[in-house]
C-alpha cells in the first residue's frame, strides 16, 4: 500500500500520526517536533521569529509585539512544502503562538499550481476535542478504524486512573470525608498565567480542585496576589514549550518574591516542575502520560509506585 505523504506542523500532530502507525508517512515536520526521536531526521518546514533563549518575560514581550503587528510568529518554508508535494498537512487553529496556522499555510502556498494537499486543522480546546482531532487525522490518512482504536485505548488508560482516584476519596459511612487537594497549574511564569483548556479536566479526573482556569477555555492571565490569596495545596509549574531545566531556570520569577516562602505548597514541599513541553502542553496521545504524572503529584499516597516519571516528567522544586 502506498503511504500518503504527510507534513506535520506541530509536535502533537506528529505524535498523533506516529501513534496511528504512520511514522514513515511523514516527510517533513515543524522545527519543534522532536518525538519520537527519529522524527528529528526529517527536514523542518517552519522557523520561529522568537528568541526562545530569553527570559519568559522577554519571550512574552516578543510574542505580543509581533502579534500586535498582525503578523505570525512563524515562518513557513513554502518552497520546501511544494518540493515535498504532500497529500496531507496537519496544522492547528487553537493558538496563534503555538504553531503555524492555516493562514500561514495559505500564504506559503499562495502560488501553488496543481493539486492542493488536504489540510487538517486541529482545534483542541478540551479533551473531547483532542479525541476528535485524533480521529480527524486518522480519517485524513485513510485509517478511520485505527483512529477509533487509539482513542479507545487512551480513554481506557485514563478511566482506570480516574476510577482509582475516585475510590480513594470514598470513606466508610460515619468517617469524615477527605478534603480534595487544591491545585494551581502554572502555564507561564512571567507574566503569570494559569493553565486552561484540558488541564482542568486532568485535575478533575484526579478529584483535585482546580484553582485557576476553566476546562475548554484558553489559559487565563492571573495576578501574583491571586495566587497568594488562593494559597493552593499543590503548585504544578508547566510553562508552555519549556522542559524541566528551562522552567527551573525561570523559577526565580516566582521564588524570588517575598511572599513565596509563606505559601502552603512551598512549606509542604508540594511545588513541582513538570515537563510541559513534552507532556502537558501537547494535546495528543501523551496526555494519558500527563495524567499519570499529575496523579503522582496530586495523590502520591495511591499513585507514587504506579508510574516511573520522576526525574523524567517531573521534579520537586525546592
What does this structure look like?
The mean pLDDT is 90. The N and C termini lie far apart (54 Å). This protein is an alpha/beta fold and 318 residues long. It is 40% helix and 14% strand. Strand 1 (6-8), helix 1 and strand 2 (26-28) form a beta-alpha-beta unit. Helix 5 (127-140) packs antiparallel against helix 6 (144-169) and helix 6 packs parallel to helix 13 (287-298). It is built from 14 helices and 12 strands.
Task: Provide a short characterization of the protein structure.
By secondary structure, the chain is of the alpha/beta class. The chain has helices spanning 11-19, 56-68, 78-84, 102-108, 127-140, 144-169, 199-205, 224-230, 244-250, 252-255, 264-268, 276-280, 287-298, 300-303; strands at 6-8, 26-28, 46-48, 74-76, 88-92, 118-122, 182-188, 193-194, 209-210, 234-237, 271-274, 314-316. It is 40% helix and 14% strand.
- Provide the residue-averaged pLDDT: 90
**Secondary-structure element pattern, one letter each:** EHEEHEHEHEHHEEHEHEHHHEHHHE
The largest sheet, given as strand count, sense and whether it forms a barrel, is: 6 strands, mixed
In percent, how helical is the residue content?
Answer: 25-40%
- The whole-angstrom Rg is 20 Å
Keywords:
four-stranded parallel β-sheet; alpha/beta; 14% strand; 318 residues; six-stranded mixed β-sheet
What order do the helices and strands come in, and which of them pair?
Layout: E1 6-8, H1 11-19, E2 26-28, E3 46-48, H2 56-68, E4 74-76, H3 78-84, E5 88-92, H4 102-108, E6 118-122, H5 127-140, H6 144-169, E7 182-188, E8 193-194, H7 199-205, E9 209-210, H8 224-230, E10 234-237, H9 244-250, H10 252-255, H11 264-268, E11 271-274, H12 276-280, H13 287-298, H14 300-303, E12 314-316
Parallel strand pairs: 1-2, 1-5, 5-6, 7-9, 7-10, 10-11
Antiparallel strand pairs: 3-4, 7-8, 11-12
Amino acid at each position: 500500500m502506498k503511504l500518503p505523504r504527510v507534513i506535520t506542523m506541530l509536535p502533537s500532530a506528529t505524535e498523533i500520526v506516529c501513534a496511528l502507525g504512520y511514522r514513515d508517512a511523514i516527510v517533513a515536520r515543524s522545527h519543534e517536533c522532536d518525538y519520537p526521536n527519529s522524527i528529528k531526521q526529517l527536514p523542518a518546514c517552519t522557523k520561529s521569529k522568537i528568541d526562545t533563549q530569553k527570559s519568559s518575560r522577554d519571550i512574552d514581550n516578543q510574542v505580543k509585539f509581533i502579534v500586535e503587528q498582525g503578523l505570525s510568529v512563524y515562518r513557513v518554508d513554502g518552497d520546501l512544502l511544494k518540493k515535498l508535494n504532500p497529500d496531507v498537512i496537519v496544522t492547528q487553529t487553537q493558538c496563534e503562538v503555538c504553531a503555524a496556522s492555516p493562514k500561514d499555510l495559505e500564504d506559503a502556498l499562495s502560488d501553488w499550481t496543481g493539486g492542493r494537499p488536504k489540510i487538517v486543522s486541529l482545534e483542541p480546546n478540551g479533551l473531547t476535542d483532542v479525541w476528535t482531532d485524533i480521529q480527524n487525522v486518522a480519517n485524513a490518512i485513510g485509517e478511520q478504524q485505527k483512529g477509533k482504536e487509539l482513542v479507545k485505548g487512551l480513554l481506557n488508560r485514563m478511566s482506570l486512573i480516574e476510577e482509582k482516584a475516585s475510590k480513594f476519596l470514598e470513606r466508610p459511612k460515619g468517617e469524615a470525608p477527605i478534603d480534595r487537594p487544591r491545585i494551581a497549574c502554572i502555564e507561564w511564569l512571567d507574566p503569570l498565567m494559569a493553565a486552561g483548556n484540558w488541564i482542568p479536566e486532568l485535575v478533575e479526573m484526579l478529584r483535585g480542585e482546580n484553582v485557576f482556569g476553566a476546562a475548554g477555555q484558553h489559559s487565563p492571565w492571573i495576578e501574583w496576589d491571586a495566587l497568594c490569596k488562593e494559597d493552593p495545596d499543590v503548585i504544578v509549574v508547566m510553562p508552555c514549550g519549556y522542559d524541566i531545566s528551562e522552567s527551573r531556570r525561570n523559577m526565580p520569577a516566582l521564588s524570588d518574591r517575598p511572599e513565596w516562602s509563606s505559601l502552603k505548597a512551598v512549606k509542604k514541599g508540594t511545588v513541582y516542575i513538570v515537563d510541559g513541553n513534552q507532556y502537558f502542553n501537547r494535546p495528543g496521545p501523551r496526555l494519558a502520560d500527563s495524567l499519570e504524572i499529575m496523579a503522582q503529584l496530586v495523590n502520591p499516597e495511591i499513585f507514587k509506585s504506579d508510574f516511573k516519571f520522576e526525574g523524567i516528567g517531573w521534579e520537586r522544586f525546592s
